[in-house]
């Protein structure tokens, strides 16, 4: 059954059987418009059609789906017929059936040597062990020889040392940039950021921690306590003036 669609430059399309037309109601074959109703079920092959009305796309999709189903059914019937002919259950109709009945390989295929069927399954073979997964290691701190040391496409973050590289693929460019970053990071970690080694012991403390007025060290500027004789002296900074502050108590009134 064929339906002439007289809209646009469409040619004749083979319409599926009536029992499959649950998508629309065809009024006649003289070019009348098909009135579709909204159907929420799945329509096979509809996603492959675009640029046409929904009715035309649905008709073509159903036609292609039905044609594919008929081809698969015909191929299955042909295979069953070849099996029956080779088994002697029927008579060949044409030359193709005669060649199929006298073919070298018979259907269904059988195992020629059943004793060798389990060799591939039972024979042990040494395989290389897979390396353990390293999903928790950042590519910034992987070894330079690691093949996974690169940044995946789509990463929108900063790539260190990547601004001066161009003309390479993303994988090669990011791998080179990360290798330079790791080398520079480890070099600075071992030189600039390494802990300072003590060459000689610290000198003995000349300041008693429990003493307030030290003899050789002045007071801090934010000290709010009493300093003997401080209100009668001037011309020096607070740190120099408060050095050996107890001299005022000893009778030394020099500034």
How does this model look, in words?
The chain has 5 helices and 4 strands. The chain is mainly alpha-helical. The chain folds into 3 domains: 83 residues, no CATH class; 53 residues, no CATH class; 44 residues, no CATH class. The strands form 2 sheets. The protein has a two-stranded antiparallel sheet. The protein has a two-stranded antiparallel sheet with strand order 3-4. The protein is elongated, with a radius of gyration of 47 Å. It starts with a strand and ends in a 14-residue tail after the last helix.
Protein traits:
single chain; 255 residues; 3 domains; two-stranded antiparallel ribbon; elongated; disordered N terminus; cytoskeleton; cell projection; Ciliary microtubule inner protein 2A-C-like domain-containing protein; CMI2A-C-like_dom; cytoplasm
Write the topology of this structure:
Elements: E1 2-3, E2 13-14, E3 24-25, E4 35-36, H1 54-86, H2 95-101, H3 119-122, H4 170-191, H5 238-241
Antiparallel strand pairs: 1-2, 3-4
Protein name: Ciliary microtubule inner protein 2A-C-like domain-containing protein
InterPro entries: CMI2A-C-like_dom (IPR018902)
Organism: Leptidea sinapis
């Amino acid at each position: 059954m064929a339906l002439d669609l007289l809209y646009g430059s469409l040619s004749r399309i083979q319409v599926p059987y009536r029992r499959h037309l649950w998508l629309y109601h065809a009024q006649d074959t003289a070019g009348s418009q098909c009135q579709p109703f909204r159907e929420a079920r799945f329509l096979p092959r509809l996603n492959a059609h675009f640029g046409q009305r929904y009715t035309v796309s649905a008709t073509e999709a159903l036609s292609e789906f039905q044609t594919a189903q008929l081809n698969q059914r015909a191929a299955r019937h042909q295979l069953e017929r070849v099996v029956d002919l080779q088994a002697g259950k029927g008579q060949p109709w044409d030359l193709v059936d005669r060649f199929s009945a006298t073919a070298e390989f018979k259907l269904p295929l059988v195992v020629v040597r059943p004793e060798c069927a389990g060799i591939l399954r039972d024979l042990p073979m040494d395989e290389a062990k897979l390396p353990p997964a390293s999903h928790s290691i950042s590519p910034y701190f992987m070894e330079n020889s690691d093949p996974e040391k690169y940044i995946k496409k789509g990463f929108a973050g900063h790539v260190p040392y990547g601004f001066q590289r161009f003309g390479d693929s993303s994988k090669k460019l990011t791998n080179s940039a990360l290798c330079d970053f790791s080398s520079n990071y480890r070099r600075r970690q071992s030189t600039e950021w390494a802990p300072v080694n003590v060459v000689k012991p610290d000198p003995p403390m000349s300041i008693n921690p429990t003493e307030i007025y030290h003899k050789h060290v002045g007071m801090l500027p934010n000290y709010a306590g009493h300093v003997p004789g401080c209100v009668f002296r001037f011309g020096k900074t607070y740190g120099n003036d408060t050095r050996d502050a107890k001299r005022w108590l000893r009778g030394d009134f020099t500034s």
